[in-house]
Amino acid sequence: MNYCSQCGAPLIQKIPPGDNLLRHVCGQCEAIHYHNPKIVAGCIPEWAGQILLCRRAIEPRRGLWTIPAGFMELGESTEEAAIRETKEEAQADVEITALHAVLSLPHIGQVYLVFRGRMRSPTYEAGTESLEVGLFSFSSIPWEQIAFPVVREALRRYVIDVTTGRSQLHLATLSDRL
Amino acid sequence: MNYCSQCGAPLIQKIPPGDNLLRHVCGQCEAIHYHNPKIVAGCIPEWAGQILLCRRAIEPRRGLWTIPAGFMELGESTEEAAIRETKEEAQADVEITALHAVLSLPHIGQVYLVFRGRMRSPTYEAGTESLEVGLFSFSSIPWEQIAFPVVREALRRYVIDVTTGRSQLHLATLSDRL
Q1: Is the N-terminal amide bond of A142 cis, ω within 30° of 0?
Q2: pLDDT grade, residue A73 (50/70/90)?
Q3: What is the DSSP annotation of B110-171?
Q4: Do B11 and B99 reside in the same domain of the chain?
Q5: CATH code, B101
Q6: What letters, b where the CB count within 10 A reaches 16 and e where it falls short, cover B63-79?
Q7: Do B3 and A7 make contact, defined as CB atoms within 8 angstroms?
Q8: Are A116 and A64 in a shared domain?
Q9: Which helix H or strand E contains B48, and what residues bound it?
């Protein structure tokens, strides 16, 4: 971040009055440019004891499996974001039934909100960001080919919950060592 | 948003390849500048059947009451953000015990994550952003002087939960008409 997005002048780093963190501040118009964590909204789509996974058609981790998930957009709710991502990446319609996990990834400034979603029908198809999409029983989940540690962790906790008949919210922080 | 924060050239609005939303894109270096919702992490600090509220010393809504809450920063977890805000605004130390509510405010691009926090001692004091801080029994909550509708809604649901002996996660979307 080098230039002010408001006036185009060079930015400097300083602690604004009343603040206690270094911020990017414009030397000309004095606008303060904050950086904040982003929300990734995801969904575990469920159908008859199976879950829907997508094989990524894009980098990073092209060719590996994940749940439908992506950056939340302005103007939508967290649940709407999860439903939209499921539609875009797996062409599937889900009804959100619960928030499964809130997983903080402070090393990359992201917070995953992973929902459970009941598929309205066993209809799905690869979206433009997926190579293929498929339903997996718990015993066939490709654990060694999951794209991201945070998704593996969300799925691991999900399988334990469902297997033991529990539904709970998971609050956790994942380090970059996971 | 008028200028590219990377190279300083003017921005144009267009839909990037593979996207379906208008974005701010640099006409020179082609950097895409995304805007995403921000997380506000908040805490309802609890002590002996009472809750801790802060009277705002800053705009907006100076002079009105709220829970400790603020924008999550890079490098912290959601729980750490709620603990930090409680320390900054009320000089109180809390242990997070549960996530009380995930409240989406799509009209202003915010998501409130409101936690329950057990105060480690009945020690508190106004931080620089608060005029005063105090413990309130449920019957003395100043409902008509709560700073923000989202905070009033979080507190309303909290009081019902505690009064009826429940602890549950609230998922809701608040419109600007609330």
Answers
A1: no
A2: very high
A3: EEEEEEEEEESSS-----TTEEEEEEE-GGG--GGGBS-HHHHHHHHHHHHHHHTT----EE
A4: no
A5: 3.90.79.10
A6: ebbbbbbbebbeebbbb
A7: yes
A8: yes
A9: none
Kindly determine whether residue B77 and residue A35, on different chains, have CB atoms separated by under 8 Å. no
Q: Are A47 and A86 members of one domain?
A: yes
Q: Is B178 part of any domain?
A: no
Let me know the angle formed at the C-alpha of B12 by B111 and B109, rounded to the nearest 5 degrees.
10
A98 and A152 in a single domain? The answer is yes
Residue A77 within a domain: yes
Q: Are residues B58 and B114 in the same domain?
A: yes
Distance from C-alpha of A127 to C-alpha of A131, rounded to nearest angstrom = 8
A20 and A70 co-located in one domain: no
DSSP string, A139-157: GG--GGGBS-HHHHHHHHH
What number of other Cβ atoms are within 10 A of residue B36's Cβ? Answer: 16
Summarised one tens digit per residue, pLDDT across range B40-87 is 999 999 999 999 999 999 999 999 999 999 999 999 999 999 999 999
- Rounded CA-CA distance B75/A28 in Å is 28
Whether B25 has its CB under 8 Å from any CB of chain A: the answer is no
> Do A61 and A127 reside in the same domain of the chain?
yes
Domain that includes residue A31, residue range: 1-35
Ranges of residues in chain B with a pLDDT under 50 are none
Q: Is residue A13 in a domain?
A: yes
A23 and A84 in a common domain = no
Chain A, residues 82-141, CB within 8 A of chain B, namely 96, 99, 102, 104, 106-107, 109, 111, 113, 128
Q: ipTM, 2 decimals?
A: 0.94
- If you search the block for the tokens 């894009």, which residue do you land on? A58
Q: Is B27 on the interface with A (CB under 8 A)?
A: no
Please count the structural domains in chain A. 2
**A7 contacts chain B (CB < 8 A):** yes
Please report the pLDDT score of residue B176 as a whole number: 75
Q: Tell me, yes or no, whether B97 lies in a domain.
A: yes
CA-to-CA distance for B59 and A66, rounded, in angstroms? 43
